[in-house]
Design goal:
53% helix; rod-shaped; mainly alpha
């Protein structure tokens, strides 16, 4: 997993402190009993380290490709429903992937295209009447 290094003092940021450490500890508990698990699951090994240093902010820094690989590797692990730190980690991972997958609305032009724009001149009285600021013209 390619990540930018955490900045100094990053543990003070929101979502880092106890939650990131609890997630890293839960991940460690799953990876430790299996020899070479970190070599077979390199993205999870990198995530384990980065969670201790930067908490969930690591998910925002990771590339979408890395997040997909993390999801695939996490899906191979026997995560129990009562393992709240890992359940929260999987939820945060899916939320980040979902956020990135949402289509962004196309920017709308703030004015009409000039090829369809028709400009005519009107009197000040007509303008005021159109805006409801003056009574109808008397003829």
């Amino acid at each position: 997993m390619t990540l930018t290094p955490p900045t100094a003092g990053s543990n003070a940021r929101a979502g880092t402190s106890h939650e990131g450490l609890a997630m890293a500890a839960a991940l460690k508990a799953l990876l430790d009993p299996v020899a070479r698990s970190r070599q077979v699951l390199p993205h999870l090994a990198a995530l384990e380290l980065n969670l201790t240093q930067d908490g969930l902010a690591v998910l925002k820094r990771a590339s979408t490709k890395s997040l997909v690989k993390l999801g695939q590797e996490l899906a191979t692990l026997p995560v129990q429903p009562d393992n709240l730190p890992l359940q929260r980690l999987m939820s945060a991972l899916l939320d980040e992937l979902d956020r990135r997958a949402r289509p962004r609305p196309a920017p709308r032009p703030s004015f009409a295209a000039t090829d369809a724009l028709v400009v005519t001149e009107i009197t000040h009285s007509d303008f005021m009447a159109a805006g409801g600021m003056a009574g109808p013209k008397s003829r």
